[in-house]
Amino acid sequence: MNYFRTLALLIAPFFLVLSCSSTTKVASQFNTPEASGQTFNLESLTRTAERTFADDLVFYVSNDETHLYVLVDFLSSRRYQHAREFGFTLYVDGSNSVRRSFGVTYPTGIYYQLGNYPGAQQGYLDEPNWSNFPENRSIKEAAERSSRQHALLVQRTSRRDPMQPFPFPVAQLNAQSLMLHLDDDERTGRISFAIPLQTRSTSQFSPDIKPGETIAVGFEIDPVRLLDMDIRSTAPLITSETASGRTRTDTDQEEHERINRLRMRMGDPYEQWVQVTLATPSE
Fold first, then answer.
1. How many CB atoms lie within 10 A of CB 137?
2. Mean residue pLDDT across the chain
3. What pLDDT shows up at residue 14?
4. Measured at the alpha carbon of residue 181, what is the angle toward residues 179 and 182, in degrees to the nearest 5?
5. pTM of this prediction?
6. Which of 18, 30, 64, 206 could join 196 via S-S bond, C-beta 3.0 to 4.6 A?
7. What's the CA gap between 269 and 34, in Å, rounded?
8. Residue 97's CB: how many other CB atoms inside 10 A?
9. Within 13 Å of residue 90, how many CA atoms lie on the same side as its CB?
10. DSSP string, the chain
11. How many whole angstroms separate alpha carbon 76 and alpha carbon 82?
12. Pairing relation of β-strands 24-27 and 270-277?
């Protein structure tokens, strides 16, 4: 039995419940928000754009001729903790695009960055106090820093294209006009996204949308997607009945208990979609 696949099947019903809810419709405003502070920050959107609720978060959206601007505020400290651990993804799909055609995961999540350290991902999930061990504390701190310094990007033109994201330093994305910023006090967070509308020589990463178009914007925290990826440090499961003298029944029971622990550890998957009509200069 594939332990990760079984976990995905157990959690899948949560996605069905979330995806059946009615789609919220939002009208973007045509303006360029002021970037406050010494670093990119879209705080001014809270004063100029409409506030829209999406379950455990609120968001603000505007656009100009070159960018889509989205500011996300987390209302639930537990939900934000899951975002810090497993990453937060913003999807932007044009009217003629496949679902999840363009996505930015930021922060990437502590769990993803722990893949750079052999055995750390599995230990982080299996042992609740893993981060408190002195030998692991510095590893987690380094993973947290890297989670804010990097983003994951998905660009697809067909359903057959893989969902495997590519990592990029935030500084490299900034140079391509895709701006990201995280305000974090470890309990609540605010994430700023400035996404180029069109692919240009100075903006290679974009959903290729335009003012006036109605698009789909998705917000997602999906630990199952990370587990289903080709994780770099996952140890193989014991499958032989004779390994360590265990019987098949013992192994199945332990696997079932482990899956239940992981579900509690990771929390429920989160997925919300809204329909956004981009503003035009004449509006």
1. 12
2. 82
3. 45
4. 160
5. 0.81
6. 206
7. 33
8. 18
9. 25
10. --HHHHHHHHHHHHHHHHHTSPPEEEE-EE------SSS---TTHHHHS--EEETTEEEEEEE-SSEEEEEEEES-HHHHHHHHHH--EEEEE-TTSPTT-EEEESS--HHHHGGGSTTHHHHHHH-TTGGGSHHHHHHHHHHHHHHHHEEEEEE-SSTTS----EEEEHHHHHHTT-EEEEEE-SSSEEEEEEEESS-BTTB-------TT-EEEEEEEE-HHHHHHS--TTPPPPP--TTGGG--HHHHHHHHHHHHHHHHHHH---EEEEEEEE---TT-
11. 10
12. parallel
List the structure tokens of 272: 């919300």
Residue type, 223: P
User: CA-to-CA distance for 194 and 70, rounded, in angstroms?
Assistant: 7
Q: d(Cα 273, Cα 267) in Å, to the nearest integer?
A: 19
Write the pLDDT tens digit of every residue in 205-230.
Answer: 999 999 999 999 999 998 876 666 54
Omega before 107 within 30 of 0, i.e. cis: yes
- Two tokens at 76? 């639930």
